[in-house]
Design a protein that fits this description.
It contains eight helices and 17 strands. It is α/β, with parallel strands linked by helices and 348 residues long. It folds into two domains: 3-62 and 159-339, 3-Layer(aba) Sandwich (QueA-like); 66-142, Thrombin, subunit H (Beta Barrel), CATH 2.40.10. It has a nine-stranded mixed beta sheet with strand order 2-1-17-16-14-3-12-13-15. Strands 5-6-7-10-9-8 form a six-stranded antiparallel barrel. Strands 4-11 form a two-stranded parallel sheet. Helix 7 (301-310) packs across helix 8. The chain is globular, with a radius of gyration of 20 Å. It is found in: Cytoplasm. It catalyses: 7-aminomethyl-7-carbaguanosine(34) in tRNA + S-adenosyl-L-methionine = epoxyqueuosine(34) in tRNA + adenine + L-methionine + 2 H(+). It is an enzyme of class 2 (transferase).
């Protein structure tokens, strides 16, 4: 398979730069298994679910992962945390840090104090930084919310809560699980009142989610690793759902990757570790029956996952339809509800 198989033409004007006034006010493109796409509203989602289904959500919470500081020599530097690696350590992308060597000292100011960090070993495109104080509370005071690179503005007060899901409770992500941004309390309550069970797992989304695929042959691409926790309760919920004939519905590609990683041994089991699972067309899904997801960048690993799930030809046709109908794209954009066919079509 080739990276170019997953390209599509997207007018820049369709990239959503701001959230809508109401979380659930977005549009929903429904891709039924074996049928043509249907244009809906996100508030139609409860009608697409059935009593006995299981809706699984990613309860990660975005941290203030962007820091601005200086080298000891005085040059400016910007750090984007990829993930926390301990109480005082983080893997980061550094802008302005190409020539940094292990042992170099960086200075970050904020929260009424000066905080120093030492550069550790380089790990691919990331640096390991060792900070002089515990990170989590300090980040809450001085860090900036890391909006995606395709949003051409700085984070604003509105983003502090709109670039978080209403159910996020475990800090650690540096990008939001965006399919969940559409849910408000009323819609979740309506879904549960209709007999749909809700469950939660955690995948801390890393900045590598925006990393472009640079190789033409997908077999040569290596995914970034992300932290995952699939609790025993979720495994029990999935088993009970199967027993009653319900469907397992993933809210977001992160939930799909978490569940499929937890089922890598042949059966779904509790999982607490890292995943670098790369899902492309031809993958055999073990857990998920339907997927709620936002629209993803051309040639991205997330689009490849959705094509693997819903079938290459139907998904790419759905994207062309979404462009023609001027859906809003990416993090603050509209959503798709994709039902998995029995035999998805392969990539050419």
């Amino acid at each position: 398979m080739r990276r170019q198989d997953f390209t599509y033409a997207l007018p820049e004007a369709l990239i959503a730069q701001q959230p809508l006034a109401q979380r659930s006010a977005s549009r929903l493109l429904h891709l039924p298994a074996g049928s043509a796409v249907r244009d809906r509203a996100f508030t139609d989602l409860p009608s697409l679910l059935r009593a006995g289904d299981l809706l699984l959500l990613n309860d990660t919470r975005v941290i203030r992962a962007r820091l601005r500081g200086r080298r000891a020599s005085g040059g400016r530097i910007e750090a984007l945390i990829e993930r926390l690696a301990g109480d005082r350590e983080a893997l980061v992308q550094l802008r302005g840090g190409k020539s940094l060597a292990a042992g170099a000292r960086l200075e970050f100011a904020g929260g009424g104090q000066r905080v120093m960090a030492s550069v550790g070993d380089r790990e691919g495109e990331f640096f390991r930084l060792h900070f002089d104080l515990p990170l989590r509370e300090w980040l809450d005071e001085v860090g900036e919310l890391p909006l995606p690179p395709y949003i051409g503005r700085a984070a604003e007060a509105l983003d502090e809560h709109r670039y978080q899901t209403i159910y996020g409770r475990h800090p650690g992500a540096v990008a939001a699980p965006t399919a969940g941004l559409h849910f408000d309390n009323d819609l979740l309550a309506q879904i549960q009142a209709a007999g749909v069970e809700v469950g939660y797992l955690t995948l801390h989304v890393g900045a590598g989610t925006f990393k472009p695929v640079r190789v033409d042959d997908l077999a040569e691409h290596r995914m970034h690793a992300e932290r995952v926790v699939v609790p025993a309760q979720v495994c029990a919920q999935v088993e009970a759902t199967r027993a009653r004939g319900g469907r397992v519905i993933a809210v977001g590609t992160t939930v799909v990757r978490a569940l499929e990683s937890a089922a890598a041994g042949g059966a779904l089991a509790p999982f607490d570790g890292e995943t670098a699972l790369f899902i492309t067309p031809g993958y055999r899904f073990a857990v998920v029956d339907a997927l709620l997801t936002n629209f993803h960048l051309p040639e991205s690993t997330l689009l490849m996952l959705v094509c693997a799930f819903g079938g290459y030809a139907p998904v790419m046709a759905a994207y062309r339809h979404a462009v023609q109908q001027e859906y809003r794209f990416f993090s603050y954009g509209d959503a798709m509800f994709v039902e998995r066919p029995v035999e998805p079509t392969a990539c050419p």
